[in-house]
TrEMBL record:
SMART domains reported in the protein's UniProt record: HTH_GNTR
Gene3D superfamilies registered for this protein in UniProt: Winged helix-like DNA-binding domain superfamily/Winged helix DNA-binding domain
The protein's name: Winged helix-turn-helix domain-containing protein
Keywords: Coiled coil, DNA-binding, Pyridoxal phosphate, Transcription, Transcription regulation
Signal sequence region: none
Keyword DNA-binding: yes
Coiled-coil segments: 90-117
Organism of origin: Streptantibioticus rubrisoli
Domain HTH gntR-type: 8-76
Pfam family, one: GntR
Xref: PROSITE patterns: HTH_GNTR
Record keyword DNA-binding present: yes
Domain of life: Bacteria
Amino acid sequence: MNWSPENPPTAKEIAAKFRSDIVDGVYGPGARLPGAKGIAKKLGVGLMTVQSAYKQLAADGLVVGRPGSGTYVIDPVKGEPTAQQAAAGLRDLQDQLKHVTSQLSDLLERVARLESERRPDRTANSR
């Protein structure tokens, strides 16, 4: 990701980066994510932006916040998927959604083109 002070990341982008890091094993089960204040300063964003990213990860079931201690990658119960597996599944779903969205967009363009070709030329009928 190419972030700069002129182009700071959104909470969604920050969450995606950490999600990817969890998939890649940068943060394994039980690992503590960097403090939100430090990340905010490093990225040039507000603290609330990083906190929102961490909340997104928690909503995905990847991390848990421990007040006064930090945010940790969930260490799964036996038989449950690891955060790494869950994040990989989410990434796969995002990729599939992008593909389906692209296909729908193509279909909409084709339908619009077909409909415009089927419309009779009203100027020819008015003569």
